[in-house]
Amino acid sequence: MSARYFVWLSIGSGAWSICADWADMTDGASPSAIVPGAQDDIIVTGPTGAAVQTITGPGLAAAALFTGNTLLSGSFSIGALTLGQAASGGLLELAGSTALQCGAASIVSGSLLAGAGSSLSVSGTLGLGGAGGQAAFNVTGGGAASVASLFLGAASDSIYVDTASVLEVGGTGQGRAGQLTVDAGGLLSGQGNADAFGAVANSGTISAQGGTLAVGSVSGTGSLVIGAGATLALDGACGAGQGVSFSGANATLALQEEFDSPAGLLAGFAAGDAIDVEGSLISSASFQATGTQGGTLTLFYGTQVAAKLLLSGAYAGDVFLTAGDGAGGTLVTLAPGASGGGGAAPGTTTPDQYGWTGGQAGRWNVAANWTDVTRGQSPANVAPGAHDLVTIAGSQSAFSVIAGPGNAASLTTTGEVAFTGAFNAGTLAVGSTSGAYAAATLDLLAGATLAAVSATVSDGELSVSGSLSAVTVSGTLVLGGTPFGVGQPMAALEVTAGGAVQAGTLQMGGGAGDSIVTDPTGSVEVGNAGHAASGAVTVDAGAELNGNGSVNPYGLIVDNGTILASGGTLSLGAVSGVGSLAVGAGATLELLAATADPITLLGSAGNGGSVLAFAGGRAAPTGLITGMVPGDAIDLEGSPLTSVQLIQGSGSGTLVLGYGSAVVARLYLAGSFTNQRFVLLPDGTGGSLISLTNTTGGGGTGQQTGTDQLAWSNPVSGAWGRAANWTDNTQGGQASAPPGAQTPVVIAGPGGTVFEDISGQGTCASLSASGNTILSGTFATGGLSGGAGALVLGMATTLTAAQAAFAGTEMLASGTGAAFAVAGTLSLASGALLATLAHGGVQCGTLSLSGGAVSVDVSSSVEVGTLGGAALGTVT
User: Fold this and answer.
1) Phi/psi zone of residue 502: left (φ > 0), alpha (ψ -120 to 50 degrees), beta?
2) Are residues 524 and 537 in contact, defined by beta-carbon separation less than 8 angstroms?
3) Three-state SS for 499?
4) Kind of pairing, strands 144-161 and 135-139?
5) pLDDT bracket for residue 11 (50, 70, 90)
6) Are 452 and 483 in contact (CB under 8 A)?
């Protein structure tokens, strides 16, 4: 009988053996007079969404196309099976005890599910993907699947086998439950997710092709192959029986972490290939030969061994580079060969502009590696020298390794560039100097030296890694330069594996992303005293490090000079030495560990306050803090406080920070703080902000009897009852008397960390507050509203209102006896915070939240209603 073409007719469930469930498209008979057989082609269109149709076997077909959702129950034999069309999705599921045999199978899109004790056998290739759809092959619930070979065609394709089921590639009957098995002679290839978080027993070949192929922990005695431009991602341990072959250009082996390093032999690793240690920072890599054709590649984090890899090949004398992979990990690559030879080139007698054209490897003193842009010579007649202006534009994906000696009047590098040998430059720029963002890495390899008069790392990293590698800047080394946009630039100085950097002055000027890091063997010295400490950033006597960013956050800082926070937040690791720390106007100095260095605050209410921050009580400074004035603040990060108390001495005082009955820290302040007080506020991130404010003010008598609107004379601290502190907005000019019961009042306080303090007894018809104000005394109002800023009730202060509504306001009742009561509704809109701390209390008739927040510490309370007896630490 000749081949025929059938279409499934049944809506819902049906039997393959019932003619009425089929249309014979060859004869145009609907329903069909016969059912499909082994020589026929069929199309089955199932329902979509959550609905699934069931087809009961037995059934035979030469070729079958399934779309939509179908459950097969019984036994079936199909020559060539296809599931889904381009991006159409669908489900083909095998019911319990169902057996499906195929010559070949293709999951264009959708999911093929073998579950509940079913079996699938494919004598040829099972292929996933191919037409843009997401394809999945899952074996679950005690199911079993055997295929001769398996191919994944797209990054979104996936294979999964659960712990009760078997998925075998190769068909020799070696499959075991709970693992993806690739038999000897079997092939799994392509890209996607091949049981990446499960067990893989590979005695055949797993080959990454066309993209990234992710696999789980691998055992067995098979081969792992990485094709050209492909990535093999190991998401678990890889046994010694697995050989890894880099079989094409630009192949990458990705390790989820260094502990997933394969124990077997890596072969074919060449320039352009990479080992990506995802999520781990590797500082250096070195090769130790154990024979003429092999050895061990050791990956280091500082002086600690992170991983060891066995390489097949002759790499003695080769250089292995480490650089960030852009996602928090490290790329390990092999530097192209670039041997030194000869002396430094004389260059031109005039300052010609030069550009590097030597590719990924070459010598500085070879003219053929350069273009003389000024003279229009390519290649140049002579390599650049001490008078010339040199630009090296490296690739963003692979290092250009340049061997010295080399000299330049100015040297600019972008992209990935590595130096080996000796170099001198008048000015050095790493990254773009034109205002356009261009990430860059300049890596000085072991033994390389670079001397410059001045240097700027605008956007990227200056990495000095390896024994005897050194950068010397006689003038100023700048990290960051001028920011080019939000979050840019991010400039880094990283000194590891015995490297050293010395600069006359170090300025971190670009943004919060700037960082300086040493490992335990690297050193950075600011100044020229020659006192660099291994594993530390050292600031010599008379030298200065200034700016904002992060300095050795997990390492050491030896400060014998001056470290100045300016222009933002400067975060410091463990500081020792006999120098000083300073905080500029509008800047923050953040201490990650305790220090005894004296600290000077240079800000003020007029030019911008200074903030001293430290990461918890253990990081509290023990040295003398001078220069604290109203507008300055202290931020205890991550730690809530319930009290702050000043013990005033002669010319100095001790600020005691408390949580309940426990003393969290003691700070030693120079100066006298008469008519001033320290106010405790939340810092917005779970910590405590301590602000210094004035409390001075005079007295007055009488009250307004009319309805003129009065405004507080801003900014000033003083008494509510003094007429001179008020402006009559209705009449114009100074008020004749302070507010009365019929007076609408406006208070606009200062911003930032500056507060005004209003004291006494006051009453008004309505109060509209914005900016930062502290009330001290007893106050009553009809309506209360708040805008951006903080309204704080100090110790023993009460404020009552008929109604209250806040938007963007921090309303704080802070201190013993601080009480805020609203007879009617208290409304908190977006951005508003109602907080009570340090034995304060809040009570209201109704609490309405539309985006606001309520915070209560363990010593305080918020009560909604009028019964009284609110429990501490709760909203009652």
Assistant:
1) beta
2) yes
3) coil
4) parallel
5) confident
6) no
DSSP state letters, 719-738: ETT-GGGEEETTT-SB-SS-
Alpha-carbon distance 237 to 563, whole Å? 46
The HSE-up count of residue 870 (CA atoms within 13 Å, CB side) is: 23
Distance CA 668, CA 690 (A): 14
- Amino acid letter at 681? L
Question: What digits encode the pLDDT tens for the residues 372-400?
Answer: 999 999 999 999 999 999 999 988 777 88
CA-nearest of 215, 95, 92 to 150 is: 215
Q: What residues does 544 pair with on adjacent strands? A: 562
Residue 692 tokens, joined: 């210094």
d(CA 458, CA 490) in angstroms, rounded, equals: 8
Give the CA distances from residue 843 to residues 663, 803, 834, 871, in Å, rounded to whole numbers and listed in that order: 29, 12, 11, 12
By C-alpha distance, which of 9, 47, 44, 41 is closest to 26? Answer: 41
Name the pTM for this structure. Answer: 0.63
**839: how many CB neighbours lie within 10 A of its CB?**
20
8 A C-beta contact, residue 63 and residue 80: yes
802-839 confidence digits (pLDDT tens): 999 999 889 998 877 889 999 999 999 998 999 998 78
Closest Cα partner for 501 from 481, 480, 519, 525?
A: 525
703-727 pLDDT, tens digit each: 888 889 999 986 778 889 888 889 9
Angstrom distance (rounded) from CA 13 to CA 54 = 5
Tell which residue, 806, 809, 798, has the closest CA to residue 841.
798
**CA-to-CA distance for 91 and 68, rounded, in angstroms?**
6
Q: What is the largest CA-CA distance in the chain?
A: 115
Residue 50 CB partners (closer than 8 Å, separation 6+): none
